[in-house]
Amino acid sequence: MDEFEIIRRYFARRAADDSVRVGIGDDGAVMTPAPGRELVVVVDTLVAGVHYPKDLSAADVGYRAVEVNLSDIAAMAGRPRWATLALTLSDSEPEWLQGFAAGLFESAARFGVTLAGGDTTRGEQTVISIHIIGDVEPDAYLTRSGAKAGDLVFVTGTPGDAAAGLALLTGSVDRTAGDEDARRFLVQRFARPVARVAFGAAIGRFASAAIDVSDGLFADTRKLLDASGAGGRIELESLPLSAAIRGVCGEERARRLALTGGDDYELCFTADPGREDDVRAAAGRLDLAVTRIGTVDDSGRLAVTENGERVEFEDNGYRHFQADR
Ligand code: ADP
Ligand code: MG
What we know:
Layout: H1 3-11, E1 20-22, E2 30-31, E3 38-47, H2 58-75, E4 79-89, H3 94-110, E5 114-122, E6 127-136, E7 152-156, H4 161-170, H5 180-191, H6 197-203, E8 209-213, H7 217-228, E9 231-235, H8 243-260, E10 266-271, H9 276-286, E11 290-297, E12 302-306, E13 309-311, E14 313-314, E15 317-318, H10 321-324
Parallel strand pairs: 4-5, 9-12
Antiparallel strand pairs: 1-2, 3-6, 4-6, 7-10, 7-11, 8-10, 9-11, 12-13, 14-15
Helix pairs in contact: 2-3, 2-6, 4-5, 5-8, 6-9
Residues 7, 11, 24-27, 85, 87, 115, 117-120 line the site of adenosine-5'-diphosphate (ADP).
């Protein structure tokens, strides 16, 4: 199968979206932006064996490749609209391509994203790079840099689950720990992350800053605070842990994964305490768990506390948990 056959067979779907004036098949794509909205552009690359285990199903790889980009759009409070796909393939196995395209289009369909173009090449390793272009009303986008001392820090969902799922896939967590439903849930959280797109857009006008959690809650919260020129603290006892991660990993490892595990694609965001009701209302409307996990201060660094006491914690794992328990 040559590249043109691959494009034609798996990726060239007729755009349902008439904002795409020229889609797949020409030298470039032409789109009509919505009047009065700003564009939000994101790109994320997945390398086989680096960002996902090589034996992850093709459909999961395709789904995940889109969701990680949707998650960046969510963190900007944007609305995703169009995508391009740069695909480097180590082989052109029809079964893999079929599954990959199915997963990719399944995720793209969640928010009506149209694949408008791409590039297909052969290489030694499979590399998937997706761009998404979205839009947002002027002044309704979020950045990392708006957090102020006194703001509250929130996170959506139950961080750590995806890292626990990956650990189950790679065998670094005992594959018989906990019950089977819990293990399946955790693996699914890695294989099929759910970008918080609707929630990001819902908080765009009143949250002060946001970031999506891809590298771990601690590291990403610190990035947000650094960008804001602020500090803060995360309260360990407030971390929302799923019953699944507790059951499979135990409380201590679950907390460590929640703080340092990547791949959650949840949103970490800040808001003025006067906006907490708005945060709760948006979460309620979308039936999404949102938890207050800390506060912003002007210390210039991010601390971790447990019941008010500072816990010694480094990004590469905390040392004092055992001593503290
Ligand atoms: P060119 O040689 O002009 O760069 P290509 O032959 O690479 O064009 O691509 C032909 C068309 O197919 C273009 O419209 C391109 O956007 C699209 N395309 C190529 N690869 C993909 C892909 N993996 N997914 C979606 N569209 C693709
Ligand atoms: Mg060309």
